[in-house]
Every structure is written in C-alpha cells, then in structure tokens.
Design a protein that fits this description.
Blueprint (H helix, E strand, L loop, with lengths): L1 H20 L40 E4 L2 E7 L5 E8 L2 E6 L2 E5 L4 E2 L2 E2 L10 E3 L10 H7 L5 E4 L1 H7 L3 E2 L5 E5 L2 E8 L15 E8 L2 E5 L17 E5 L8 H11 L3 E5 L6 H7 L6 E2 L6
Parallel strand pairs: 5-8, 8-9, 9-10, 14-15, 15-16, 16-17
Antiparallel strand pairs: 1-2, 2-3, 3-4, 4-5, 6-7, 11-12, 12-13, 13-14
Helix pairs in contact: 4-5
Length: 290
C-alpha cells in the first residue's frame, strides 16, 4: 500500500512538471522599421512605452537627480551647469539657479514626463513644431511670470506667443547668457520635406563661455563647419528624419565637441555610433534619449 501511494505521488509530480514546461512563453514583438511619411506622425522613430534599454557609457560622469540622468559640468569661472536627460529630443539645463527647458514634451508615445514635479523654467526653447518637440501643455506647465519662450516663426504662430529667432539670429539673454539660432534641415533626396531649409532652428547656448550646441532635427549640413569651440553637443540620429550613424560620425568630426550626447535616436543602434567614433577624441556619452 505504501509503495502504491508513493507511485501515485511521483506520477502527480511528473505530470505537474510536464505541464509547467509546456506552458506558452510570451514573446516580445520586434519593433518594425519605420517607413517614410510626408510629415512625422506618432509612428516616427520615437520612444515607446517600454523603451529598449541602452548601454550607457561614462556612467562615472552621470548621476540620477530628480529622477533623471544628470551630467554635471563647470564653467571656467567655476559656475555649475547640470544637463538632465528627459527623453528623445527633450532636455533640461540648470545653470546656477537658472532653468532652461529644451523642446519639452509631456507624453511621447506613452513615455510620460510629469513637468509639474520640475521647476518652472526661466527659458523655454523650442526648435520646431513637430509633435516630439513642441507640446503646448508642457510649455503651459513650465511657464511662470517672467518666463521667456524662444522658438521659430511656426511655433510662435501656433502657440500664440514667443520670441521668434530665425537662422543666424543672436540674442543676449543676460550678460553671461547668449543664444544663437543656427540652421537645421534635411539634405537627403526625398527627405527635405521633413525639415525644410530655413524653417527650423538648432541653437548654440553659451553660459559663461561654456558652449552647448543643440542641433535640433538636422542632417550633417555644410553650416556645421562654422560651429566651433563647442563644449557639449547634442546631435540627432534617426533616419529618415535626422542623421544616420555615418552622418553623425562625420558631423562630430567636423564640429569636434569635447563631449557628445547623441539624442533623438529612437531605435538606432548606439553601439554603431560609439564604434564609429572610438578614435575621434570626443567623449561620447550615451543616455536615454530614445
């Protein structure tokens, strides 16, 4: 009887194990290659609700602050600059007690930033009107009495206010803060419609002689040869809307920033970028700018 009872128990255990091993596994659906459209839409190569993890380099230079990846720098006179990775094309810059928000977007394909938890901005800078750069709700949330909004003509027209800067314009925001608008456009045949020449801006933000180049949506355009003495550059990488890794490599070698943050990169393989730039002498830092 004892032997019979043990046999029944062993059989039940074997049956249960077989059932577990044959249970279906949940597969992760691959992200499909994005197709070219007349204008960027929510299908553009932007972050998804569960973005792929990226291999971040130079983690010793990065800390987490306010829930975001943050890289700290000092100007030659010892003033503090903090660069916060928000997502995709959105970043926050803190210079001393002065707050800049660049292309703030609340909800981008399910990746949500709660701007109510961040400081109000002294300056909101918007490069152009596409949905992954311009968000009225985020701008309203970040605006306070005395906030300055700086953008191109298209965004100012849609938003109803803002100081307009065109390619080549320069503005002194304070004695130690200077802003220059530079071209940002597509050059690849068939892609010019995404970012036509002369409409959108990149920006060079100078804080106490510390120069930050925020390229906006652009390819490796000839005007980059005139961009010099850059401490930190943000260059985009997601064709068909901005640059390929090869174009980013070329642009970086032309500009020669001390530090490069590839951004606006969607599903682009960042290892390809770091491999291309490994002998460039540029400090390439990968953060979560999918």
């Amino acid at each position: 009887m004892k032997h019979f009872f043990m046999t029944i128990c062993m059989g039940a255990l074997m049956f249960a194990a077989a059932g577990c091993s044959s249970a279906p596994k949940t597969a992760t659906e691959p992200v499909s290659e994005q197709t070219e459209t007349a204008q960027p839409t929510p299908a553009e190569d932007t972050p998804q609700a569960n973005p792929q993890k990226t291999e971040n380099t130079d983690m010793a230079e990065m800390t987490m602050e306010d829930g975001f990846q943050m890289d700290a720098f000092k100007t030659q006179s010892g003033k503090d600059i903090k660069l916060y990775c928000i997502k995709h094309g959105s970043l926050r810059i803190r210079y001393g007690e002065t707050e800049f928000e660049i292309d703030p977007v609340t909800d981008l394909n399910g990746v949500v930033t709660d701007y109510t938890k961040l400081p109000k901005a002294d300056y909101i800078i918007v490069t152009h009107e596409h949905f992954d750069h311009f968000d009225k709700a985020a701008m309203d949330t970040l605006t306070k009495d005395g906030s300055t909004i700086i953008t191109n003509d298209s965004v100012a027209g849609i938003y109803g206010k803002g100081d307009v800067m065109a390619n080549g314009d320069e503005k002194s925001l304070r004695d130690d803060i200077h802003l220059k608008a530079v071209p940002a456009y597509n050059t690849t045949a068939g892609h010019e419609k995404f970012h036509p020449k002369g409409r959108d801006n990149g920006f060079i933000l100078t804080l106490d002689n510390f120069r930050i180049y925020i390229a906006g949506d652009t390819e490796d355009i000839p005007e980059m040869a005139d961009i010099k003495d850059i401490d930190v550059a943000f260059l985009p990488c997601n064709q068909p809307y901005t640059m390929t890794p090869e174009q980013l490599n070329k642009a970086t070698r032309v500009i020669q920033p001390k530090v490069l943050f590839p951004y606006h990169y969607g599903q682009t393989d960042m290892k390809q970028v770091t491999d291309l730039l490994k002998d460039s002498g540029v400090d390439v830092r990968i953060r979560n700018y999918q």
